[in-house]
Amino acid sequence: MRRYFINPELRKSTAALLILNMFFMMVVLLNLKMYHYNLKQDYVRTFGAVTERISTYDPEIAREIIPVITAGADEKEAQKGKYVLEQYGLSGKLENKLFPYINNSAHKENLNVILIFVVMGSIFLLMNYLQYSYFYDRIRRLNTGAKKIIDGDYDISISEDREGDFSKLSTSFNSMREIIRNNLQELKKEKQFLVELLSDISHQLKTPLSSMIVYNDILLNKQLSKEQSRNFLIDSRNQLYRMNWLIKSILKLARFDARAIEFHRESQSLNETIKYSIEALEEKIKSAGIQVKLHENGKIMFSHDRHWLCEALINIIKNCVEHTQKGGRVDVCVVENPIYKRIVISDNGEGIDEKDLPNIFKRFYKARTSKSSDSIGIGLALSKSILEAHGGSINVQSKLGVGSTFRITFLKY
């Protein structure tokens, strides 16, 4: 029962009922007091008339009657008197109207009781109407809000500044509204993402597919030397490799956006993960004539999925290598302090135009100054998704002709 009294409406209505009951009890008691007073007046009036008659005929008998009136008679005298009155037809079975004084008092008392209960009933009906209209108004507000949500209007908000179940209900309603709105927004985003994904795949596959169709038509319809055929087949193979890498990368991004990738994170050396990433690019680094050096300051442990974090670092280091001239260098530093763990990857390559910096982590974005014809702008976007999934962030600073610096930061919580 106590749990319902957290509602201020119930406390107020209970207090009002108690006050009204006390008030009506006092009214009833006052009415009874008035009724007893009137009975006493009628009693005095009736016995006064009787005593006056007796006193007229015999004053001595009147003096004997007075004590009987005030002190009462014994049972024998009362029974004898009752018998005498019955001889004249007076008994308790007679109607009230044959007892004028009693009839008037009873009539007044009945009217008073009816009036009290009419007033009391009216007040209770009014209280009942006001209380339930208050509740139904609040319920209608919730109903109106629910209809607006069904119609797609999510700006409605039900506010309750009091404690109690209605306040909890309004809070739950607002939470439900936000959840529905967020879910619909997520569905719209997923739909838009699917449209963009299909558009991206179509756009990115169009060129290599067209090239392969041309190559195949040439191989089928023209007489080519063995060397020429071999060159066309090598080009076709390269296009297939590129398409394969592109499709895999796009699907990885799609899985990240759909939160469908499960990381197997464990506490392990961040230094070792960086070394594996550099080793994976060893052939590319040698062929580019670039020097890549790792700068360590002690062993740093970090909870991460080595496979995925390696892929993110490979894409960033690869980007630095591809945009650095022969004889250049790429430095990878890993540091730790009480606030964060950080990986800094910097090069002394061609740099990135300031206008391109805000967009380099967008998928399929290619910088205007980029000289790499094979770049399709998906590696950095994938790296950013992987790092953010690990709770990290990445930013870049660059200057044309000087080089670029990528900073990967993992805050300690």
Automatic annotation (TrEMBL):
Q: Which Pfam families match?
A: HATPase_c, HisKA
Q: What class of enzyme is it?
A: transferase
Membrane-crossing residue ranges in chain numbering: 12-32, 111-130
Q: Identify the residues that the record assigns to the HAMP domain, covering every copy.
A: 138-185
Note the PROSITE patterns from the entry: HAMP, HIS_KIN
Coiled-coil zones: 177-204
Gene3D superfamilies linked to this entry: 1.10.287.130, 6.10.340.10, Histidine kinase-like ATPase, C-terminal domain (3.30.565.10)
Where is this gene product found? Cell membrane
Q: Would the keyword Ribonucleoprotein turn up in this protein's UniProt record?
A: no
User: The Histidine kinase domain covers which part of the protein?
Assistant: 200-413
Q: What is its EC number?
A: 2.7.13.3
Gene Ontology cellular component terms for the protein in this record: plasma membrane
State what protein this is by name. Answer: histidine kinase
Native source species: Clostridium luticellarii
Gene for this chain: phoR_6
